[in-house]
Design brief:
Helix content: 55-70%
Mean pLDDT: 89
Number of strands: 0
Distance between the termini: 18 Å
Shape: elongated
Number of helices: 4
Bound molecules: zinc ion
Order of helices and strands: HHHH
Radius of gyration: 19 Å
């Protein structure tokens, strides 16, 4: 799905799957990202609070951000991976493809070298 840390391939270079089915498609991944971030930050917060019990309630969330920040690109990446899998599992049928997705298929088919479907 990705060719860099946060750079996406779209469509898939192996099977030609169009990841972004419609404009705003990855808005759903933001919910996944929010959930992942909340779990990570919550975990780091309680780890910081137990490691440094004297730390104030205002400082502990800031300290919890330190181990979280390097993970932010991974949260972005895997929230999109999860979203694509979740959404495709919920609605795998090509018949539901909207005009935008069909347009993207045609674009992808034009760019694909001949001999690959
Ligand atoms: Zn693929």
């Amino acid at each position: 799905m990705f060719r860099g840390l946060v750079t996406m391939n779209d469509p898939c270079p192996v099977c030609g799957l169009v990841f972004q089915r419609e404009e705003g498609y990855f808005l759903g991944a933001m919910y996944v990202s929010y959930l992942l971030s909340a779990l990570l930050l919550g975990g780091f917060y309680f780890a910081v609070k137990s490691a440094f019990p004297g730390l104030s309630s205002a400082a502990a969330p800031l300290v919890a951000l330190i181990p979280y920040l390097p993970l932010a690109p991974l949260v972005f990446r895997y929230s999109r991976v999860f979203w694509v899998h979740f959404e495709r599992a919920a609605d795998p049928n090509d018949l539901s493809a909207g005009a935008y997705e069909k347009h993207r298929w045609r674009q992808a088919a034009r760019r694909r070298p001949p001999g690959r479907s």
